[in-house]
Amino acid sequence: MRLSSPPELWTLLWIVLLFNAMGCIQSIRCKPKSFRDSIIVLELNTSIDSNPTSIDEASSVVLRYRTPHFRANARVLVPPVAAKETWTIGWIQACNHMEFFNTYGDKGMSSWELPDLRDGKIPAISDSDGVNYPWYGNTTETCTVVGPTKKDSKFTVSMNDNFYPSVTWGVPVSDSNVPQLSSIHRDQSFTTWLVAINQATSETLVLQTIRWRMRLRIQVDPERPLGHRAVLNEPVAQEQPQILGKNEPIPSNAMVKPNANDAQVLMWRPKNGDPVVVIPPKY
Fold it and tell me: What residues make up the domain containing 201?
């Protein structure tokens, strides 16, 4: 059975709906998108080069190796800045995990370590260049927009990272240079953030989060002649970086001193005996 309604009731309902719609429109007009919501990442690319880690045995004192590069670049659009504000947009990176062991047969091993990270006192440590905290660098890695501006600002920020260390052929706490290095193991993990920071208020906007990892294992036969001792066991190709669907917050340690290079310590851990500090932290 169909019920009918008085025309006056339908008229009243239409008036209510109309006013609600007008109210929504007015609300949208009165509350434009905030600056925070208007910064747009137009394009983001990240990768680790496909070439394997290369090994250099040119020196009779140290073995050197060079890992493939991690790379990240982003095209960013910054809307007009109405106020006298300065925003810096760029890359911040932190190390979340580090294993870096060099084994010398049955003598023991040397190990580059980050004590606070190793002991679980902090979740991550800054991987800044050590000068431009908290940024990874200040050339291609960042761009600064000084307000007020009338137009959108479009630009690209990029960074790259890899390892190129030297490992002594002989035991690092010995005066002897007799080759005894037998293997190298390295496994490090990083989080890299694309970030916008207000220089006056320190307001920090995380625009994108990337995770990546670098692993390698090198087997060494110290009995073989120089130039023929070391072989890369794994991996031939690194895992590709992961762009997270949901951004992660930046730990406070990733924003301040010390950075990983200044905080790391080289330890000698003999098979028998107490550990020895070979190179203390700079910071």
Answer: 35-279
